[in-house]
Amino acid sequence: MAFLTESFDVNQLPQGTSSFDPLPAGWYTANITQAELKATNDGNGQYIKLRYDITGPSHQGRVVFGNLNIKNASAKAEEIGRQQLGEVMRAIGLSRVTDTDQLIGGSLGIKLDIRAARTDDKTGKTYDAANEVRGFRSINGSAPAAPAPAPAGAPAKAAPPWTKK
């Protein structure tokens, strides 16, 4: 037990105005304030967990999290995650990353979508609706970050299905 140095009256304490409801879908500017390498739940992969602090055009101060798979048993999940990492790097102006700390401080545009509330079929755990980061772009431009040029002689790649409207 720890005694407080003063008495607190609930009627004299400020009420919070924070909301954990998802932000409306759309583009926001944000700063990357945390980047951490984590193991996947099965222990056979890795992802970069990013914290984005929203800076505008609305909802300043709100926080959104996103994960980038960089090693995964699913080749498709790994491909998508690495593509997203490339988009983040291009948006914040990095050509090479060897440490997650290099991502911290980067400012970029992020496109948010809303994932509907759901129940996990395997565990029965319920999840509230939440934001998902679906796109990245440089703050200086209005288009998504340009893809890196393909190596000479490489076959052209079609746009991935999740980017088609």
- Secondary-structure-based class equals mainly beta
How far is the first residue's CA from the last residue's CA? 58 Å
Poorly predicted runs of 5 or more residues: 142-151, 154-165
Task: Write the element-wise H/E pattern from the N-terminal end onward.
Answer: EEEHEEEE
Mean pLDDT reading: 86
Q: Describe the largest sheet.
A: 5 strands, antiparallel
Number of helices in the DSSP assignment = 1
- The rough form would be described as globular
Oligomer: single chain
**Widest sheet: strand ordering:** 3-2-1-4-7
What is the compact description of this entry?
The longest helix has 18 residues, at 75-92. The chain has one helix at residues 75-92, and strands at 26-39, 46-56, 63-71, 107-115, 118-119, 126-127, 130-137.
Explain what the structure shows.
The chain has 165 residues and is mostly beta strands. It contains one helix and seven strands.
